[in-house]
Design goal:
Keywords: Magnesium, Metal-binding. This is L-rhamnonate dehydratase. InterPro entries: Enolase-like_C_sf (IPR036849), Enolase-like_N (IPR029017), Enolase_C-like (IPR029065), L-lyxonate_dehydratase (IPR034619), L-Rhamnon_dehydrat (IPR023444), Mandelate_racemase_C (IPR013342), Mandelate_racemase_N_dom (IPR013341), RHMD-like (IPR046945). The protein has about 400 residues and is an alpha/beta fold. It folds into 2 domains: about 130 residues, Enolase-like, domain 1; about 240 residues, Enolase-like C-terminal domain (TIM Barrel, Alpha-Beta Barrel). Helix content is about 40%, strand content about 15%. The chain has 14 helices and 14 strands. The strands form 3 sheets. Strands 4, 5, 6, 7, 8, 9, 10 and 12 form an 8-stranded mixed beta sheet that branches. The protein has a 4-stranded antiparallel beta sheet with strand order 3-2-1-14. Bound molecules: magnesium ion. The site of magnesium ion has 6 residues, from loops.
Length: about 400
């Protein structure tokens, strides 16, 4: 059984969007002096879909969200030819072939994102060929159901924030994640506003639910150090990506302070990248993104690494490939869940392009033991709202 065809398409959203708001979420571009739309680098309203077909007509579906037009070119121009003619069950060899043949430029960033999309499609394909869900190929069921946390609560007026937090309590979530709106450029007043956001959510969810806080790389080491002390009374389960992904030393030093657990890895690539994070004891929680890290083939190796070091894995983003990984390892105690919502930052597009993602009940997700592959399909419900680039 050989791979016969690789098809890529970019789905660009042209439907209704929620207009961008100020102080919605800190991000790595906040330190630049340009003002204007400071959320520009954070939003992504396009998604790459990669379909891989074997000689018998079985199609596996992969995807990637990072710079989809460029990622599409990388697959079309380079990676597709490396994959066509291979047996999809030789996943390790295919991965190494893609990795080594493009090593000069592909080992991080766009190249690894393209590889991730292909790898996800290959795992879906393998599941469909043998009639098993992907998690059964990765190690099988390790939990009765998957605990998940509601991940949204962007910066907004405090009354609206409180209402949103209450809605997650009402839906039965035991854990929620919120975003900060202010960073180093905003001085002590911004710090106060950040604390008001946290206080508002903590007051609504009470002391017995987990609260996680996301900086999305929008802070500096010095700012984060000051904020950590101020956040200590709120019993934060983890502070996420306080500094940019390359500042591993910053993660390590913040963690050493022992004030709050520090999480990261959403913008790191491959087993090699996570080996550095783990070796340096830089994070308390590993949050790889399967869409970037090198697909499921790389992610399962990072699961093994994390297990060896007793570091929990909680992958970035809700989405089927992450749920299958979470289900298949004890090293992963929980999944991120993005509530279904009008199109805003772009995470939501997944629900408009695909169908089949499970919805939580009382804060837990379930995977079907008998549904082959990843269990998602392309949806045609919203096709009119997309510009599709072949
Ligand atoms: Mg994050």
């Amino acid at each position: 059984m050989k791979i016969k065809n690789v098809r890529t398409r970019v789905f660009e959203w042209k439907g209704k969007i929620v207009p961008p708001a100020r102080n919605f979420c800190t991000n790595a571009a906040d330190l630049l002096f340009e003002r204007g739309d400071n959320m520009g680098s954070f939003r992504f309203h396009g998604w790459l879909v990669c379909e891989i077909e074997t000689e018998d007509g079985t199609v596996g579906i992969g995807n990637a969200a990072l710079a989809p037009r460029v990622t599409k070119s990388a697959i079309d121009e380079y990676y597709a030819a490396l994959v066509i003619g291979e047996d999809p069950f030789d996943t390790e060899y295919i991965w190494q072939k893609m990795y080594r043949r493009t090593h000069a430029w592909g080992r991080k960033g766009i190249g690894m994102t393209a590889m991730s999309a292909i790898d996800i499609a290959i795992w879906d394909l393998m599941g469909k060929e043998v009639g098993k869900p992907v998690f059964k190929l990765l190690g099988g069921r390790t939990k009765d159901k998957i605990r998940c946390y509601a991940s949204k609560l962007y910066g907004q007026p405090l009354d609206a924030l409180a209402r949103e937090a209450q809605s997650y309590v009402d839906q039965g979530f035991q854990s929620v994640k919120m975003r900060f709106g202010w960073g180093p450029q905003d001085g002590p007043e911004g710090m106060k506003k950040n604390l008001e956001l946290v206080r508002t959510v903590r007051d609504v969810i009470g002391p017995d639910r987990d609260l996680m806080c996301e900086c999305y790389m929008g802070w500096t080491f010095e700012y984060a150090k000051r904020m950590l002390r101020l956040l200590e009374p709120f019993n934060i389960r983890w502070l996420e990506e306080p500094v940019i992904a390359d500042d591993i030393e910053g993660y390590k030093e913040l963690r050493k302070l022992g004030v709050l657990p520090i999480s990261g890895g959403e913008h790191e690539f491959t087993l090699a990248g996570f080996q550095q994070l783990v070796d340096q004891r830089a994070v308390d929680v590993i949050q790889y993104d399967t869409n970037r890290v090198g697909g499921l083939t790389a992610a399962r190796k990072i699961n093994a690494l994390a297990e060896a070091y007793s570091i929990p894995i909680i992958p970035h983003a809700g989405q089927m490939h992450n749920y299958h990984l979470t289900m298949s390892t004890l090293a992963s105690p929980m999944a991120e869940f993005f509530p279904v919502h009008d199109v805003e930052v772009g995470n939501e597009l997944f629900y408009y392009i695909f169908k089949g993602d499970p919805q939580p009940e009382n804060g837990f997700l379930q995977l079907d033991d008998d549904l082959p592959g990843l269990g998602i399909e392309l949806s045609d419900e919203y096709l009119k709202d997309f510009n599709i680039i072949e």
